[in-house]
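I have been asked to look over a protein record a colleague put together. Alongside the sequence sits a line of tokens, each denoting a local backbone shape. Please read both lines and tell me whether the tokens look consistent with the sequence. Take the sequence as given and treat only the tokens as open to question. I have pasted the whole thing underneath without changing anything:
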Amino acid sequence: MRTVTVVGASLSGLYAARELRAQGFDGRLVIIGDEPHNPYDRPPLSKDFLTGRADEAQLALTDPEETGDLAAEWLLGTRARGLDARGRTVLLDDGRTVPTDGVVIATGASARRLPGEALTGVHTLRTLDDARTLREELTRGHREVVVIGGGFIGAETASSCASLGHTVTVVEAAPLPLVPPLGAEMAAVCATLHRRGGAELITGVGVADLRGTTAVTGVELSDGRILPADLVIVGIGATPNTAWLDGSTLALHDGVLCDDGCVAALPQVVAVGDVARVGGSRMEHWTSATEQPRVAVANLLAGRTAETVRSVPYFWSDQYGVRIQFAGRRRDGDTVRITEGGLDDGAPAEGGFLALYERAGLTTAVLSVDRPRPFMRARRELAREEGRVASGTV
């Protein structure tokens, strides 16, 4: 394999490039990124960067010394528009082509947007450019902010806006936010953080329309209520960036379909990060984006699936001054047991808590609010337990 092209220059793409060099690939390495920026860390965008506690230099994932060591050709600000997998060529938006022997797809995901014409004051938050624009708006005096979507991005952004003194309302169409990852019982506990942090949470109602002609002035809810707004932040999930692969021979369905080793339908193509549907699951987590590239690159260089990804899903969220951490594979019907700390009137008590999700005598997942050390111990034990189950010793 003389040339490998990494399509995507964010977290998982950078980790794939590192793995290629670390695993001995000394051929031509091309990295294509549609954004003009060097790789940067996205999680702080909705938190410390938005509130001004972090600047752009602190987002950098690499430095000139490492960039030099990678000895890669960086094609930043360049969008891939097609993959001729059998011809082994990546097609670029500017008409150029990149002949290649292997491809790592790391194109991530894009923020979902509301239908209709774009109004001034309506934002999504996914990229550095998104965050720059939103941060500037938040410094122009008090704002009536409506956040549409109570997931992690919505909650973190609402928290940041509230901490800056803005009036914040979060609108969530489901009866509770965060039920899919946390389950109803713990989602109800975490939902109290909005109220405690000074934001209003409206649930069980959708958005019918946005009010305004050129600039947004309000949000019309499906029950007829109208929320005044001069800033709307849409946090309703993300869509994997696979449009450029339409017409290729790769299997696509909510991401690039891969086996358990991140290998796509063709052995010289692997996918990692938010765009990869690995073994039937697509995860938009920082940890997945950093763990998958090692296995994917090993399989790419081997020309077959020699290794599989075996990690316990993990994510965290910082909002309203607390840290939420979750690891495992929760399923509906699991019993939840708080083993440390507790609740105070349905909200996390001072000092937080640690909760275990259990099924048939086994721990399936662990949730922590401000209990990082006990959580890490429980996470390690969860990984050991999963390993014993996988090996058939439990």
